[in-house]
């Protein structure tokens, strides 16, 4: 229905044919019987009295209903409002106020009609409709079933340089450059997200056919979705980025859910490990601070996770802090958090610190023995009562957490020389658990080595390799200053260079020893390695240097044979320089024999 503006006389009453001509579509010339039956017009004067009626408004009872609804709508400042006829038929009324008169256009609707429900439920329905007509991203261009423009939003008129109403009554192709609205009307198929070039500017648009309640196409509308394809590309890039991040966090969440940090993750059935597990089981349910001591690589982090998982706090978070890595300038913000705007670069909403994040859960301080002195003082205050303040804030906050600390340092010596506070030690060391070194649990080496081979194979999608008895005995004869961590890395390295399905002693190369105790390239137990490789009997007079030379010679001979004299690969596999390899080949009499080998 098109409402054609009409001038109202300052006096007198509009004739019914004038009202109906205002309701007619310009192309039809007259209204049909059905139009009279479904629509009506009621014109009110400045005094609020009826000046003219037509259509369904000719019925006095219907006119009274429309007037009653109008008085309520005017009080609520509504220009589109619902009403009902005396027999309960729903009506939607549009009010068109003029200087000295008001035109009320009424339309009968179905009781479940979407427009009737929308107008009846929303007081500001007219404002929403106005938004869709004027907003640049929802503004409409409307054509009828003949492709004639019936309405164009003001923003579109300005874009095409048209005066208000300048496109109305003209074919879409005459008004809108490269328009396809008439094709959409003809085909009845929507076109969404297509590029439309208008006045040398590309837009992303959508076109939709409009159907009446009988399913007949009555027109089409066109809208701008994006002002240019660049916006769509940017949106697509942002969406791809978000999808990638979601996939990453899903994998991380899956790993966290599937990762077990309980006692099952602490491998070993040696007496030392059985004693450790018993201590963890007894200690975990008690809400006391725990200090884990022992050499580097003994699994202190796994023990901390096991204590947390077996404690009443298992459903809350275990927050990890590397005390040695805390920068002195940011230690307060990292531990206690900060309020918004506390310093340059601070997040707008502020941020929780590690201590606040651990509220209700556990706080794991790794390498606590390496904590700077000023950090020790600040931590001590929190451990006393759990109270703290964020950086830049005045509010006193509280965090209820269980402290689990770990260190490989000698606290007695540190306390004696003043590098660690005695009062802090008493706070963190309520109960101390010593993690056994790998030398104290050599029975577990075979199980740990098999685990390393299995994990390596899973990561690289290979068949797991086996560990020979000789290789197992070789590993058990090492000192392992790096403990389990060093063992796992050593076994993985052997799996890389092993040419068969079974790992043998020669695949391990020379295992680095503790530099604090032994010379470079010397491994404790080198004599045992020499015996394993040469079959010689142990001798009390065997010198360390001779044992190392025997091990090197056997490893070089086996690698040269296995790699067919490729010196470059031999040097890479053994972890030595080619110049040193050439020197050793000459010493053992293989230099001339391999002179034609690959270098």
From TrEMBL:
Instruction: Give the Gene3D superfamilies listed for this entry.
Output: 1.10.8.60, Homeodomain-like (1.10.10.60), P-loop containing nucleotide triphosphate hydrolases (3.40.50.300), PAS domain (3.30.450.20)
Pfam families, alphabetically? AAA_lid_14 (PF25601), HTH_8 (PF02954), Sigma54_activat (PF00158)
One GO term in the molecular function aspect is:
sequence-specific DNA binding
Q: Which organism is it from?
A: Verminephrobacter eiseniae (strain EF01-2)
Q: Which GO terms describe its biological process?
A: regulation of DNA-templated transcription
Q: What is this protein called?
A: Sigma54 specific transcriptional regulator, Fis family
Q: What keyword terms does UniProt attach to this protein?
A: ATP-binding, Coiled coil, DNA-binding, Nucleotide-binding, Transcription, Transcription regulation
Q: Which residues form a coiled coil?
A: 232-259
Q: Which residues form the Sigma-54 factor interaction domain?
A: 266-496
- List the InterPro entries: AAA+_ATPase, AAA_lid_NorR, Homeodomain-like_sf, HTH_Fis, P-loop_NTPase, PAS-like_dom_sf, Sigma_54_int, Sigma_54_int_dom_ATP-bd_2
Alphabetized SMART domains for the sequence: AAA (SM00382)
UniProt KW Cell cycle keyword: no
Q: What is the lineage of its organism?
A: Bacteria, Pseudomonadati, Pseudomonadota, Betaproteobacteria, Burkholderiales
């Amino acid at each position: 229905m098109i409402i054609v503006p009409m001038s109202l006389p300052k006096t007198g009453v509009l004739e019914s044919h004038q009202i109906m001509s205002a309701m007619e579509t310009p192309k039809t010339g007259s209204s049909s019987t059905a139009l009279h039956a479904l629509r009506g017009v009621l014109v009110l004067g400045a005094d609020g009295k009826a000046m003219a009626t037509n259509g369904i408004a000719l019925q006095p009872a219907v006119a009274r209903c429309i007037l009653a609804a109008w008085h309520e709508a005017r009080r609520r400042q509504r220009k589109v409002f619902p009403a009902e006829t005396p027999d309960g038929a729903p009506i939607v009324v549009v009010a068109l106020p003029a200087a000295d008169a008001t035109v009320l256009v009424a339309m009968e609707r179905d009781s479940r009609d979407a427009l009737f429900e929308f107008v009846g439920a929303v007081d500001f329905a007219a404002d929403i409709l106005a938004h869709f007509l004027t907003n640049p991203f929802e503004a409409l261009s409307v054509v009828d079933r003949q492709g004639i423009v019936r309405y164009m939003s003001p923003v579109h008129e300005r874009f095409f340089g048209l005066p208000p109403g300048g496109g109305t009554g003209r074919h879409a192709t005459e008004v809108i450059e490269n328009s396809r609205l008439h094709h959409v009307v003809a085909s009845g198929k929507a076109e969404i997200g297509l590029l439309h070039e208008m006045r040398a500017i590309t837009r992303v648009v959508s076109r939709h056919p409009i159907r009446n309640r009988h399913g007949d196409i009555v027109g089409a509308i066109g809208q701008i979705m994006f002002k240019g394809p660049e916006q769509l590309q940017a949106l697509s890039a942002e969406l791809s980025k978000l999808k990638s991040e979601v996939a990453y966090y899903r994998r991380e969440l899956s790993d966290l859910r599937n990762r077990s940090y309980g006692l099952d993750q602490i491998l070993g059935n040696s007496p030392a490990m059985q004693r450790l597990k018993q201590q963890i089981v007894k200690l975990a349910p008690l809400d006391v601070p725990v200090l884990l001591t022992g050499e580097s690589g003994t699994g202190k982090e796994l023990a901390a996770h096991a204590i947390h998982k077996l404690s009443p706090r298992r459903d809350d978070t275990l927050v990890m802090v590397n005390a040695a890595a805390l920068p002195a300038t940011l230690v307060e913000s990292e531990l206690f958090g900060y309020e918004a705007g506390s310093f340059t670069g601070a997040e707008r909403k502020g941020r929780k610190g590690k201590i606040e994040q651990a509220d209700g859960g556990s706080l794991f301080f790794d390498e606590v023995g390496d904590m700077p002195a000023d950090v020790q003082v600040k931590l001590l205050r929190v451990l006393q009562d759990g109270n703290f303040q964020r950086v830049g804030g005045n509010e006193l906050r509280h965090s209820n957490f269980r402290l689990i600390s770990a260190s490989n340092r000698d606290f007695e010596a540190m306390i004696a020389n003043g590098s660690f506070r005695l009062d802090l030690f008493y706070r963190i060391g309520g109960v101390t658990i010593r993690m056994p070194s790998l030398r104290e649990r050599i029975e577990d080496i075979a199980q740990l080595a098999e685990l390393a081979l299995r994990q390596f194979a899973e990561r690289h999608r290979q068949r797991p390799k086996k560990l020979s008895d000789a290789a197992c005995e070789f590993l058990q004869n090492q000192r392992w200053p790096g403990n389990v961590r060093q063992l796992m890395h050593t076994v993985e390295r052997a799996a890389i260079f092993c040419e068969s399905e079974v790992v043998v002693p020669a695949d391990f190369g020379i295992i680095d020893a503790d530099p604090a105790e032994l010379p470079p390239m010397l491994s404790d137990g080198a004599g045992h390695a020499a015996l394993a490789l040469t079959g010689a009997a142990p001798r009390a007079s065997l010198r360390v240097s001779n044992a190392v030379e025997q091990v090197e010679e056997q490893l070089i001979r086996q690698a040269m044979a296995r790699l067919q004299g490729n010196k470059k690969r031999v040097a890479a596999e053994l972890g030595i320089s080619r110049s040193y390899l050439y020197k050793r080949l000459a010493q053992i009499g293989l230099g001339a024999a391999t002179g034609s080998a690959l270098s």
